[in-house]
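Sharing a chain and its predicted structure for anyone who wants a worked example. Both blocks are below, sequence first, tokens second.
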Amino acid sequence: MSKKIAIGCDHAGYLYKAKLIDHLSSKGYEVINMGTDGPESVDYPLYAKKVSKAVASKEADFGILICGTGVGMSIAANKTKGIRASLCTDLVMAEFTRRHNDSNVLCMGARIIAYEMAEMITDKYLSTEYEGGRHQRRVDMLED
């Protein structure tokens, strides 16, 4: 069974989002596009909420959010119960937020990293399994 990925962005991230949708689809993921789809200025918390609700309700297995820096999206996404959104700027962050934090929403900044890095981060994030074990106690604390 393929993983479902909910993906959203603001005006700064729409070009990366479009490319990532193609990339993820070519790898067999089912992608749910939650907007926005153009350069017109929009309010990023609206898109963070859409993606976060899809992940929290299990409509999607993971979420991806892209804005200018990734900071605003990560703050907004983490307001939703059950969401562990992580801003990642490199492959180590992408790997360890999955392995140790069981992150379920990946946030990236289109003004911070090149598209090629965003694609590599996405691949690393989605291919890394949560280790559980000693980390579960801490993840449980995040949910309380």
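Comments welcome. Residues 14-26 form the longest helix (13 residues).
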